Amino acid sequence: MTEKDFIPQPYSAVVEEGEVTWQSPSNIALVKYWGKLENQLPANPSISFTLNNCRTTTTLKFQKREKSDSGFDFELLFEGEKKDSFRPKIQEFLKRVEPFLPFLKDYKFRIETSNSFPHSSGIASSASGMSALSLCLMSLEKQLDPEMKEDYFIRKSSFLARLGSGSACRSIEGDLVVWGMHNSIYQSSDLYGVPYRGEVHDNFKNYRDTILLVDKGEKQVSSTLGHGLMNDHPYAETRFRQAHDNLDKLKKIFRSGDLEGFIKIVESEALTLHAMMMTSQPYFLLMKPNTLAIINKVFEFRQETGLHLCFTLDAGANVHLLYPDSEKEETLMFIKTDLSKYCQGEQYIEDHVGNGAKKLA
Ligand code: DP6
């Protein structure tokens, strides 16, 4: 599919008003997206586990306007309160998606959104937030075009979410989602995420992710800025090639169930992401002393127990701990007794792999 395929034909139905609610999860990348080209196209392919408990719920209320003038008309409520600081991001998103959703200026919108995870936990809500909003807008488009196919609905939701925030396109459908063209991944595309259709060993079913909240503050450098620094990064080309190779390796690992191989790729991806930040110009550092303390404890735990706990990182100081469902008892005990002390307010979030977004009645 190309971008043009997402420009709709004139709509067949008239919709005066209504509302729709979607709940959309966050995701955690195993091979990281870091670096992008024009129009939110990724510089390399990535793959993520979809999460289950970390979610955004968004209700979109819409009402036809008397006449559509030049601007977008929307109100924004976050956890029940007006949130003006989010407006510029939504405004920019609507502008980017308007060519593909030509009805946007015909309606007055009220967007009500809330997160299942604690406010300002340092957990990025852009993936769950942008995917939930995209799905709501697609539900409205589906009412305007009742013949729309399910396949198209899902792809276009991911396509729109990508325009809001790259990683958001991996939060629509599937437990493992690939975004970005990769030679040996069926139907992979730079334009949207697709569920990974390769064989996956039972070892990876219901994989756990416990998120240790090391630093709940606002990040000093936004992801968007960080991506930009990959443009003339001295190691960029090598890094992008490595992401392709790591996906090839992961394909084999998913099939065979090789947990040790999985750990090697996932941890290396996390450290490479942060190494790219530390070697950008200007350079920056998002890990905190407790991030490193946790990583070292994870190494020791693995050495002592032979269990398969590993870590990964997003663009921040929090640590995602990934481990098989079959090892959850011992691992959770270790997290509680040995690792929670490195978290702000001893806080961590227990999550596991989920299947994607849900429409609520
Ligand atoms: C480190 O998707 O937040 O989490 O497209 O600028 O909104 P924008 O960036 P964003 O970048 C996330 C980067 C990452 C790795 C990943 O999720 O693949």
Protein architecture, described:
The protein is of the alpha+beta class. The chain has two domains: 3-198, Ribosomal Protein S5, domain 2 (2-Layer Sandwich); 208-352, GHMP kinase, C-terminal domain (Alpha-Beta Plaits). Helix content is 34%, strand content 23%. The chain has eight helices and 14 strands. Strands 1, 4, 5, 6, 7, 8, 9 and 14 form an eight-stranded mixed β-sheet that branches. The protein is globular and about 70 Å long. The mean pLDDT is 96. Bound molecules: ligand DP6.
Task: Break the fold down into its secondary structure elements and pairings.
Elements: E1 17-31, E2 36-37, E3 41-42, E4 46-64, E5 73-78, E6 81-82, H1 87-97, E7 107-115, H2 126-144, H3 150-164, E8 176-179, E9 193-195, E10 208-212, H4 223-228, H5 236-256, H6 259-278, H7 289-305, E11 310-313, E12 319-323, H8 328-339, E13 348-352, E14 358-360
Parallel strand pairs: 5-7
Antiparallel strand pairs: 1-4, 1-14, 2-3, 4-7, 4-8, 5-6, 8-9, 10-12, 10-13, 11-12
Helix pairs in contact: 2-3, 5-6
The chain binds ligand DP6.
Ligand DP6 is lined by residues 29, 32-34, 40, 46, 124, 126, 165-167, 223-224, 227, 273, 314-315.
